[in-house]
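## Example record

The block below lists the input lines for one assembly entry, exactly as stored, with component labels intact.
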Amino acid sequence: MFLDPDSKLAQRLNPVLFLLPAVAIYILFAIYPTISVVEYSFTDWDGINPNRNYIGLENYERLFSDKIFWEAFRNTFVWSAVIIVINVGLGLVIASMLARVWKARLIIQTAIVLPVVISPMAVATIWRWMYQPKGAVNQVLEVIGLGAFKTPWLGSPDAVLYALAVAHSWSTMGLSVIIFLAGLQAVDEHLYEAAKIDGASPLQSFRFVTLPALRPVTAVVFILTLTQSFKVFDIVWATTQGGPIRFSEILSTYMYKRGALENDYGYGAAIGVALLVIVSLATIVYMQLQNRQES
Amino acid sequence: MVGRYLLVFFLGAIAIVMASPLILTVFSSLKPTTELANPPWYPPFDVTFEHYFRVWTEGKFNRYFLNTVIISTVDAIVMIGIASLAAYALVFMKYPGKALIQALFLVGLMIPVTAIILPLYSIVRSVGLVNTHLGVIFSDLALAVSVFVFMFSSYFASVPKALHEAAKIDGATEFQIYWRVVMPIAKPAVVTTALLEFLWSWNDLLLRLLLLPSDKMRTLSVGLLNFQGIMTRDVTGLSSGTVIIALPVVLLFLVFQRHFVRGMTQGAVK
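Predicted structure tokens for the full assembly:
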């Protein structure tokens, strides 16, 4: 370059040059759409027509009286609750067991964590096949004598949401196990020895040593799972698209249908804002908890 | 002692349950059509790769695979560059407005792609990048850059300030210090960024579904979704397609497991 690197101008220019690529892409393709989604939510735009009118809070008023929105909202909560029970509850139990095993640990851990890296689209295809009326799940139930529980999982209004939540948990629980394992490494071994000397059973030392020590990590995993499950789109879209009827409709699929497929763009944007608010708030809590844990 | 065996037994059972959906899918992708009536847990007796060939050529997965490799590789490489440069400016340089830029990146950790997908599509369309790989790449970078800026920042923060000062006194430019002094120290962050961004990019569906409508540009995720819509009953073809999309990242994971485990916990907000 023709610029003397020691000159004042170069000193001033440096930060700009270093920041520009990241900041430019980030503002145009992340910040701007975030501001736009709020703006569009106050319009009646159909997504195609060049003119749009500002209609104030009308989309939000519609949101509050829209029965399908509340159904999707309720479903999203149920869906998240099931995933939290599995990822936090079972994840914690599995992690604390894994921490006490040495020989087979790596292979068991690999089997549990591997699904995390697999594409949600692949997860959807796998489970759609497993959940078929004559699929693997029903065949296994038959063989182990639980044939009475056989059901067309993804076609059943009662089962579909839970079935999909289990499939999603299968592909995400590994992450909670990893985080719990990292937390367990920080627990003082002496506490376990002391508990053992005091005659505590393994179950008691889990209850009185592991659980209290892991409380901060548990909070982190809880809120992380909550945010993640609110954002899900792929696996539901690729299996049921919210069906049968609307029994597995969640906020993201409903937003996609209204905004992208039915040209109700402004209204779709309002659903997007609802999602944005919920997830951002949860993420702020998550980051606070994580900071506290690190310090 | 009995307790220990019980523990291993229980964990082994869980490992089998967790692994079985994948194993059954691989089984079904290798079975000749005549063995499809067998229970899914029967391994293929007469192993065949015909379904892979069929999906790869007729199902156009060769095209989708290439598109996916291009997007994910570019994503990973460019992400390392832009995120580390920005992090360098945030950690080592002094200028007005630094706190503001830091706060701006923080916001990025909270934005769920799902919520802003509609206006994102409008913007990509208005700059003429719908149906181009570039449109997807820019969107991917923008939506994940915050995570990696903070990842690099935390590595850079551990570089002794004296090292930076000494290089400066020796007459090195900021870029030379970045390239020769700081980046070599941040190698673990480079590996984690490459792996994680590659993985996210490889696996994404929603963005690609909207931004790449034409068949020629499709990635594996959209290709598989489309294939599933048309060939609903083609179990062997769908299983092969699933293995094709899953295998590359599974292999990456098995080779770089430690990096992945660390990266996934750090980048968990995404």
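Chain A touches chain B through 88 residues (CB under 8 Å). The radius of gyration of chain A is 24 Å.
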